[in-house]
Amino acid sequence: MMSAVNNTKFNSAVFLLTGIPGQENVHLWISIPFCLIYVISIVGNSVILFIIKTDPSLHEPMYIFLSMLAITDLALLISTMPMTLSLFLFNSREIGLEACFAQLFFIHLSQCTESSVLVLMAFDRFIAICDPLRYASILTLPRVGKMGLVCVLRGVAIILPFPFLLQQFRYCRSNVLSHSYCINQDVMKLACSDIRGSSIYGLSITLLTEGLDSLLIFLSYVMILKTVLSITSHQECLRALNTCVSHICAVLLFYTPMLGLTLIHRFGEGSSPLLQILLGYVYLLIPPVINPIVYSVKSKHLRARIIRTFVK
User: Where are the beta strands (DSSP E) in the chain?
Assistant: First the structure.
């Protein structure tokens, strides 16, 4: 196997994916909750997309941004689901370099795009609460569509160099990855070439995307909180804050495990491998399954539309 990895021809080299170390004998049983989570995630996000598309009353900026979030969650699931389930169900661990590079591109693209969408959703809440009279004129549907396109183009421009940088390396170390899917930090560790340039680029991109996006979201909520606290009516104050709960949950679900996983990969040399793997699965599985549930529960209009669709 190592001789294959030492070969500089990328199409003949392979990596080995990792499920849950020490639990290989129960991987088949572990696949059952994974399958359930994947099914719930795909069904939940697909239902939200269907409801928003078919109900003209939901063709508003807030719901358009929610549909963008659902699309990025589905893209993340589709990028990782086949290999993860193949590993747990059939113990199929091998993945070629080219397939691995393609997968990590789509994983990081989904991650970057979702971060951008969360910023747009924070901006939506900021305008709705701080400048409600201009909300309709600022967030027109054509402008919202252009914002979504910019999010995708931004992600492509930022993430596209990753696979090309990784292709320049020789892989002569252990060929075992830390997860059941490929991500840039994990693959980069297996190279025996000088990876400082790629590592600096990856860290810079993390700071300029997720770091900057989280800062913009934080500043948006500082302004929102300042506006809400100036409202004299306690009931109106709570009502305004209640419209932000779903978005705050989505932000915490996305950034907390992602930040932890990034820090462990870059600085946690002595950390437990099991912690890395579990945190990786939390980052991969929890946001896509929780986001549609939270938004369906918190949005009365969306919840009522879903109930009318399925209970007739």
Answer: 14-16, 94-96
Q: For residue 249, how far is the Cα from the chain centroid?
A: 14
DSSP-derived 3-state class of residue 160: coil
Give the chain's radius of gyration (CA, Å).
Answer: 21
pTM of the model: 0.90
- Residue pair 254/115 in contact by the 8 Å Cβ criterion: yes
User: Do 58 and 302 contact (CB within 8 A), yes or no?
Assistant: yes
The answer to whether 85 and 38 are in contact (CB under 8 A) is yes
- According to DSSP H, which parts of 172-272 are helical? 184-188, 196-206, 212-229, 234-242, 245-267
Instruction: Using the predicted structure, report yes or no on whether residue 153 has a pLDDT greater than 80.
Output: yes
DSSP E strands, 94-189: 94-96
Three-class DSSP category at 57: helix
Structure confidence by residue, pLDDT tens digits, 93-121 = 899 989 999 999 999 999 999 999 999 99
The tokens for 110 are: 């989904």
Q: What is the domain class of 2-310 according to CATH? A: mainly alpha
Quick check: 109 and 71 in contact, CB under 8 A? no
